[in-house]
Write the structure tokens for this entry.
Amino acid sequence: MTYFNIDEIHNLNHLYKINLINSCAGFKSANLIATKSAENNTNVAIFSSVIHLGSAPPLLGFILRPTSVPRNTYENIMETGFYTINHIHENILKDAHHTSAKYNSNISEFDVTNLETDYKNNFVAPFVKNSPIQIAMKYIEEYDIKSNNTKLVIGEIQGLHIKNDLIKEDGFVNLSEANIATINGLNGYAIPTLKERCEYQRPIK
Amino acid sequence: MTYFNIDEIHNLNHLYKINLINSCAGFKSANLIATKSAENNTNVAIFSSVIHLGSAPPLLGFILRPTSVPRNTYENIMETGFYTINHIHENILKDAHHTSAKYNSNISEFDVTNLETDYKNNFVAPFVKNSPIQIAMKYIEEYDIKSNNTKLVIGEIQGLHIKNDLIKEDGFVNLSEANIATINGLNGYAIPTLKERCEYQRPIK
């Protein structure tokens, strides 16, 4: 196996280091977070850091890098209190990835890609049209992470739109059936096929 | 599409709700966190919440549920300050999933499964043998998440062991080449195949 100690990691060149360390947590979720400013400017940006925090209440979190593209996302959330999370699937992968380009806040990624807004149930923020899972989110709280100046933003699910046939009898949502993507490192994409569901485990007597 | 509003989500039966909401963030990472207590009892538990926080310094986080199985993981980390993160691959999937069973802290999951300890470079915590990516971690800090009483635990990478041929020229690690797993919901597993790496994006002029 190849071994890197902490000093070697610190001394890697920037691009090599971000490629390496970004792959280290394993496969990541692939989502578009969409928002609207108080002045009605829309914004949509790709995130690979959306995580499940709990089901009761239904909470999701994501990590915001202070120096990265999606600052408009955060500013809009602060202005309105709401945002949407939309799963990235095979057909919108290229456009979703393009939202990582650094556009000024007066340019909406909805205008420079084929991604389209989708407004539902009077929710303030737009959803991404044809996304198989569209989640209406309300900002709840945030934590400033001292060790690297990032931020964990936490929201509560207000509404959940899921393509009909993905939901199974017990509530399980088969992401593979909608060709939903996962992210490897900074820029690798896969469309996983579900292999199996394992049973609830009890200790071996 | 099927729609659930927040009241409907709150009123779902427990199992349906945890299956549904656990699928909502998208695909999740699949890791085994291994630890050793001050009294040399080993512990290994499956986590689907390991996330990349930053590359400089190299930081990973994970979410701990106060009521869930892996409390021994946390207690051991508090005692020694160190732990390992080991990627789950196809060949150890069943054993990895079995670590979710609720064993007493005096029983090591290394003893009741085919998972084996692997000690390297005098690091205090064991790695999981044959895992294609084994990461030595040092505890840095934690955040108590008020909205649902979970905890974000943050650690710094101290050492990184990666199967040789997975690392590409620019530092990218191809997780698919090691048959590394991803998790869908509570108990769904997939072994993704890398589809493509997209280029760095700049605004369209």
In short: The first strand of chain B starts at residue 2 and ends at 5. Chain B touches chain A through 110 residues (CB under 8 Å). The longest helix of chain B spans residues 71-80. The radius of gyration of chain B is 18 Å.
